[in-house]
């Protein structure tokens, strides 16, 4: 399997490592020669012990016309759609995964990407890796085995200080140096921790709650050194079935907490990432009053390996899988909520999302 990764940064290295563990032929390309050198001399060896000389590190232009089975777009969010469109037109792969958030919150080009992917026959995914990890699958299995009665609410939070990200990017002096410091470029808490919106939607689907149709948001926005971003995003949401829930994302909480709680009339389900060092956890109380709890041992590479395995399976399948938890439409659903939250905050009112309104701003009212 031949794979091209755009972006020799943090996520590019994570996915390159996961793909090499499955013997894929990996090429990483970047527009910045310093990033390619950092991957060879710092990021990959510091994370995984040694650089893997089987990985090709090349400027983007050198591999622009080569054919690949899988293309990974691990660049800043405001570059995702242009790279994706160009790749689909020039040398469409079987599968393409675009990192989260899929695009900028103005949704420019989002609907067109869906059309281009369909025309090319490429299975496009969005890198919400937490929907595929072992403890997520366990939570889904328990939910299917022992329903919680009628669901009353669903809460999700990804609250994590972004100091860890800047620690891993010592060449950046702070938010202003990167998209992270600009909500409109896909940064801020809304973009960076959009895993919470996405995992809320994931469990809402599993529990039959339907899509999010209404969003009311309160943001804590910051302006510093020319940067402008939301550091806390609190969203009240309503699903099509009428369930009211809450989603919180921030870049200030430490130690971090990443969790979901699904409350039913007969019990509850809790899902948490890093519930303890090196452990993800699931806890459930079902109708009979019994509580089950399981911890899943994991390493940082295990956060990405199920996603990598899923992508490889999609390449082997040879056609898009509309039921994939990371299908393009799932990433677009998350973008609609981000866009609705920004409009809600700006206009001080609830914003409705028409679930059949497509993937542009026309779906919002
Ligand atoms: N799923 C996750 O848990 C996870 C983790 C980390 C990052 N991400 C996402 O991955 C994306 C990148 O984040 P990062 O932390 O790896 O950033 P990064 O800054 O570490 O790396 C991005 C790289 O992309 C390169 N680049 C920019 N434009 C390019 C282009 N047109 N072609 C090729 N290369 C280009 C830059 O030179 C840089 O080396 C973001 O969307 C981020 O949200 C997701």
Structure description:
This protein is an alpha/beta fold and 365 residues long. It has two domains: 2-99, Rossmann fold, CATH 3.40.50.720; 130-298 and 327-363, Dihydrodipicolinate Reductase, domain 2 (2-Layer Sandwich), CATH 3.30.360.10. Helix content is 35%, strand content 28%. The strands form two sheets. The chain has a nine-stranded mixed sheet with strand order 14-13-12-11-7-10-9-8-15. It has a six-stranded parallel sheet with strand order 3-2-1-4-5-6, with helices on both faces. Helix 3 links the parallel strand 4 and strand 5. The radius of gyration is 20 Å and the shape is globular. The N and C termini lie far apart (44 Å). The model has no long low-confidence stretch (mean pLDDT 97). Nicotinamide-adenine-dinucleotide binds next to helix 1, strand 2 and helix 3.
């Amino acid at each position: 399997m031949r794979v091209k990764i755009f972006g020799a940064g943090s996520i590019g290295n994570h996915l390159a490592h996961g793909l090499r563990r499955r013997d894929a032929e990996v090429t990483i390309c970047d527009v910045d020669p310093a990033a390619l050198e950092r991957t060879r001399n710092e990021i990959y060896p510091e994370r995984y012990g040694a650089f893997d000389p089987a990985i090709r590190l090349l400027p983007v232009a050198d591999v622009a016309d080569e054919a690949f089975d899988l293309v990974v777009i691990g660049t800043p969010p405001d570059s995702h759609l242009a790279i994706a469109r160009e790749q689909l037109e020039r040398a469409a792969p079987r599968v393409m995964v675009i990192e989260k958030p899929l695009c900028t919150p103005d949704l420019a080009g989002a609907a067109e990407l869906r059309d281009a992917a369909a025309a090319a026959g490429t299975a496009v995914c969005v890198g919400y890796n937490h929907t595929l990890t072992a403890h997520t699958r366990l939570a889904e299995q328990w939910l299917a085995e022992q329903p919680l009665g009628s669901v009353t609410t669903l809460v999700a939070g990804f609250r994590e200080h972004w100091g860890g990200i800047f620690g891993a990017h010592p060449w950046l002096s702070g938010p202003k140096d990167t998209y992270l410091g600009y909500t409109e470029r896909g940064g801020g808490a809304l973009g960076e921790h959009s895993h919470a919106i996405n995992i809320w939607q994931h469990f809402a689907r599993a529990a039959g709650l339907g899509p999010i149709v209404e969003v009311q948001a309160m943001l804590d926005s910051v302006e510093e050194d020319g940067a402008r971003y939301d550091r806390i995003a609190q969203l009240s949401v309503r699903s099509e079935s009428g369930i009211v829930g809450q989603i919180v994302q921030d870049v200030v909480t430490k130690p971090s907490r990443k969790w979901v709680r699904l409350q039913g009339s007969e019990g509850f389900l809790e899902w948490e990432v890093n519930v303890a060092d090196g452990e993800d956890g699931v806890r459930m109380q079902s109708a009979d009053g019994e509580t089950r709890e399981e911890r899943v041992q994991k390493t940082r590479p295990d956060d990405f390996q199920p996603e990598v395995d899923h992508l490889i399976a999609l390449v082997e399948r040879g056609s898009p899988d509309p039921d994939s938890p990371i299908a393009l439409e799932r990433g677009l659903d998350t973008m609609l909520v981000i866009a609705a939250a920004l409009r809600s905050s700006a206009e001080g009112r609830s914003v409705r999302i028409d679930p059949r309104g497509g993937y542009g701003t026309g779906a919002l009212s």
